[in-house]
Records
---
Amino acid sequence: MLELKGVSKRYAGGELALNNVSFNVAAGEVVALIGPSGAGKSTLIRCINQLVQPTDGQVLLNDSRLELLKGRQLRMARRQIGMIFQNYALVERLSVMENVLSGRLAYVGFWQSLLRRYPAADIKYATQLLDRVGLSEMLDKRSDALSGGQKQRVGIARALMQRPALLLVDEPTASLDPKSSRQIMRLLCELCREQNLAAIINIHDVALAQQFVSRVIGLQQGAVVFDGKPEALSEQVLTDIYGLEDWQEPADD
């Protein structure tokens, strides 16, 4: 489904942000991407959706080499990739329904979207998604009136409006309280199973990743240093990824 082959990224200043990264993600598989700040997690996600061009290697989505695509071909390929953002990236003055429908912008055309003339099938699907993420009572509410957890649910529904094959999720719980964080992670994993979606979730909360996903990839200095089951994240493995720390002690606030 998604395959990375020897992906490296060196920036103009000489910094090696990714170093020969290779892995596959199957349809329906949810992978947590962990590692310290500066390990290359965000660069990796940006290389997958081609916001950053890899220096070397291949990025294949359903056998299409994304790093070779340009213009319209790249825009068409990006329809298959749904993005969910840490800061929600909603248009706050618009309603919940309007924000969700904006997930169809790559399909309906500029004037239809400007005039908010979406096909009936899109409106029906948006309504179904809002019901699934628990926001059916809020479709007409302005997005700036929502809580953080509710905004993230809108962002999830918007990404699913693309009917993607792959979700790229950037720190979906960083701004949420512990209860909302668990709810969002549970919802993401359930939706991926229901829709047979592959997902890569960039996440700092190791305990949350261990609780919900079936596979973890650890990056250190741009290289993969761990790829396995969450239960295999021993103290030594976490030290390899993050450096020395007392992993038995609770984190300081």
---
Amino acid sequence: MSIQLSPVAWQLQAACRGPQSEVFFPPSQSERKHDRLERERRAKAICGICPVRSDCLSYAMEIRESHGIWGGLSESERKSMMERQLAAS
């Protein structure tokens, strides 16, 4: 049996907490494609070792988060996942 954590509880366990959290969202100024891909790669590497990655992704999908890397997926990857889920239902 799995214990469901409240959003606050799982967020406290997230690997993205702290100063490295800036890589999960685009900067306020324009970003070159190469820089965006590198930033996203770094964020996804942090997600790869995160103990609450699935909780994070579930939360982002539930609230339809449209910005940043959540649960190891970018905005466009989450959108594609949502479209596949809707098509399958």
